[in-house]
Amino acid sequence: MKISKDQIQDANTKTIDSHNENFSFLSEQLSKKGHDVSNIISKLSKFQVAIPSWALGAGGTRFGRFSFYGEPSSLEQKLDDVGIIHSLTQTAGSVSLHIPWDIPSDYSAIKEQAEKLNIKFDSVNSNTFQDQEGAKESYKYGSLSNISKAVRDQAIAHNLEVIKIGDKLGSKSLTVWLADGSCFPGQNNFQTALQNTQDSLKDIYKGLPNDWSLLIEYKPYEPNFYSTVIQDWGTSFMLANECGDKAFTLVDLGHHLPNCNIEQIISMLMLKGKLGGFHFNDSKYGDDDLTVGSIKPYALFLIFNELVYGMQNNPQNPDLAWMIDASHNIKDPLEDLIQSIEAIQQAYAKALLVDQKALKVAQQEHDVVKCQEILQEAYRTDVRPLVEKTRFDIGGAISPIDTYRYLNVRNELIKERGKHTTATGL
Ligand SMILES: [Mn+2]
User: Fold this and answer.
1) 89, 241, 320, 392: which sits with the fewest CB atoms below 10 Å from its CB?
2) Where are the domains positioned within the chain?
3) pLDDT reading at 389 higher than 80
């Protein structure tokens, strides 16, 4: 199924009048406060976030998985789903593939399809957290950190293969997330595991094309419950520095222990020019992969405030690879992703409203109350008409979720694909 421009325009006619009313009110208010509304809209319209190929089917837990009907069962169908989200939001113009779940059988056909849908190939993700059929070595006790050289070599070779696949598609970065670690004290020697990981990453780094980046993701626990080799930003930062200029840290919102100050981590990494990628999701307890902004919207805003500050003040930091890394198990995955995109755009818009000059003055005067007021003034602004206007101007839906339902997208997909389909890798 593809959504046409006419279908979106038709759906927009239902809400255009109330949207115009809301937007002109907000726009006037913001202009009076000295904001350049068209500049904010222009920044918002340029923001694109990648959709991971594994978020298009219903996710599962270790207790079970409940399929969502009409799921994509091939890479082609996954691209079509990203195309649907992109048509509605005009903000999801890239896909992040997971290898070996999404190896194309016909590269030129896949590239042609992506081009028609106006979708680019973002970072490619390697997988050494599960054994593949017919693999000689097992990752049960780790991959890049494994005590066995044969296992490490297999994992390195896999990553080099992923780079080759990504290169054929036009990707420009490799994301490495390792499940490596231990479940019990004494199981691993911490230093050996870290040293092996460092050496393996260096071997992968050597195979990186010149215009590529290596993004090193960290996570404190799960699937290992005693130690994880790359458990925090500091370890990732250290490994990236050891690898070289093309290696960066990737921050995933769900990969932190409770109450961690993620915005401060982002700010430090951007100052050092080492924040390479960013994965959005939300969580209450651990790596819950919930819809972005569904649990801690203020934290998301504070994070965006640092991202915006970094984008404006840290030319030493590269452009970020943005991706939604959520895969929930009870919602329609496409609606879930649309909600996430909406939350990301709202947080970005609010962060763009922070009066940075006034904040600097208040900080210099140690006016703590004023500092908080400035941030909350931006946070408490209802920016929804601004986000709607951005989407409308670039050909998207004023209300993507309503339009998705109005066009009966899920039923159309079930008609096309059948009820009981399962996305690869899930
Ligand atoms: Mn992630």
Assistant:
1) 241
2) 22-417
3) yes
Fold of the domain spanning 22-417: TIM Barrel (3.20.20)
Centroid of ligand 1 to alpha carbon of 154 (angstroms): 23
Q: Is 334 in contact with 404 (CB distance < 8 Å)?
A: yes
Q: How far is the CA of 23 from the centre of ligand 1 (A)?
A: 35
Q: How far is the CA of 217 from the centre of ligand 1 (A)?
A: 7
Q: What is the pTM of this model?
A: 0.97
Within a 10 A sphere around the Cβ of 29, how many other Cβ atoms? 13
- 35 C-alpha vs ligand 1 centroid, how far in Å? 34
Q: What angle do CA 246, 347, 122 make, to 5 degrees?
A: 35
Per-residue pLDDT tens digits for 251-268: 999 999 999 999 999 999
Centre of ligand 1 to C-alpha 116, Å, is: 28
What is the model's pLDDT at position 424? 66
- Structure token pair of residue 162: 């992923």
What separation in Å is there between the alpha carbon of 75 and the centre of ligand 1?
A: 20
- The string over 37-57, giving b where at least 16 C-beta atoms fall within 10 Å of a residue's C-beta and e elsewhere, is beebbebbbeebbbbbbbbbb
